[in-house]
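lol so apparently i was supposed to do this last week
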Amino acid sequence: MSKISTNESDSDRKKRTGLILKGLQKLYPDANCALHHKSPFQLLIATILSAQSTDETINKITPVLFAKHGTPKALAAAPREEIEELIHASGFFRQKAKSIQGTSQAIVDNYGGKVPETIEDLITLPGVARKTANVVMGTAFGKNEGVVVDTHVGRLATRLAMTWRSKDTKDAVKIERDLMEIVPQKHWTYLSHALIFHGRQVCAARKADCENCSLAKWCPSDGIVEIVKSKTKKNASHKKNKKRKSS
Ligand code: SF4
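anyway here it is w/ iron/sulfur cluster bound
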């Protein structure tokens, strides 16, 4: 079980985060975006489609989509029903079709057919919020303008106590602010990719494999995630027994 204090000072937290970052670099030296793409435009569209879906699903959809409509002009002009059919498996296909066609049209109309290279411009595009803009800025343009906080990053930043303004793993705004404060800017894009890798391979939502986690010595949640889980199970069976007795 971890001996890390939950009341550590800012400088201790910063030092510990530096060690976590080094640990991640050792574990995942090549951590990168899992969405397949050949251009900033393709990454932008793939990222919009990836909401509430998996990278695997999107990587099956986009080669077919881009083979037919691979440019902003072509995608904007395609029949809506055809786009909906092509992206159906990604879920929320009607809204996503509207967003990717709206974004394509806006790129044609306002940015000369090229994906804009600032967060401010990117978030004016339909269906593009700060998270998607961060993905494009960091991965497509190599500019560390922010930290992508998805479900894995939110969970891991909280378990690893790299965030302190909120205990809510879904509070992307506060988590991003904390990570930007505690991690040097040049590592922001890498940090997201590496935490996503670790979240998928070791520290999953339902099963944190603390025993085999090489970040455990810097993690205040080492062992605790499993205990919380078994307590929940215990509570569930206790409630079940109580129900049985009363029925
Ligand atoms: S697996 Fe356990 S020790 Fe490793 S980061 Fe997750 S909670 Fe911490």
